[in-house]
Amino acid sequence: MSAPLGDLFWSKVDRDGGPDACWPWRASRFPNGYGQFRRPGRSGCAHRLAYEEAVGTIPEGLELDHLCRNRGCVNPRHLEAVTHRENLLRGDTIAARRAAVTHCPKGHEYTPSNTSRSSRGQRGCLACSRKGEPMTKAQAGRLGALEGHRRKNARIAAVEKVEAAA
Question: What is the model's pLDDT at position 109?
């Protein structure tokens, strides 16, 4: 185990709110808002160092999630070791918002038996595709763009064929 963080580290933490409040890091921060601590032998993200001292080593393959959603907080009670996926889905991210959607735009529930996945991992509604439901504007736009690319590629192939024959 590493050497204790000591008074220098904890002097940079505001613990006035008590054990259940956020403990803001009052010193240097990385551009993304996480606290930064640099000393010979103990350097890195302040919240990770605080967690390791209070709880223990962060298990392999896991990262810390701020339950309080405050990147500057170093209170070990506000930190939980989770997978990267879990951390993303808990946050305010596009992935989290999309994962929270339970029904397709036409109102069909996304269930394992009613959901298809594209090669890019996007969900599709099998009920809509079976019924021949009309496309949404976004689907029509993507299909139109794809069809435009196909026509362009066909024209290029035709020109190359003519040039090759000449």
Answer: 92
